[in-house]
Amino acid sequence: METKLNNFKADFNNVFVEGNANAIQMARVFVILAVPVLIICLTALHSIK
Fold it and tell me: Among its keywords, does the record have Transmembrane helix (predicted)?
């Protein structure tokens, strides 16, 4: 679990800070960040009804 967290931190750093990420690193970061955002948006839309 610790290695996965360290890999994510390295990928996040490469994507947003250094800007030298490859396509796989970008995909990992955006999928991991998109899931919570989608859950929050769908929950908010459901509560509006």
Answer: yes
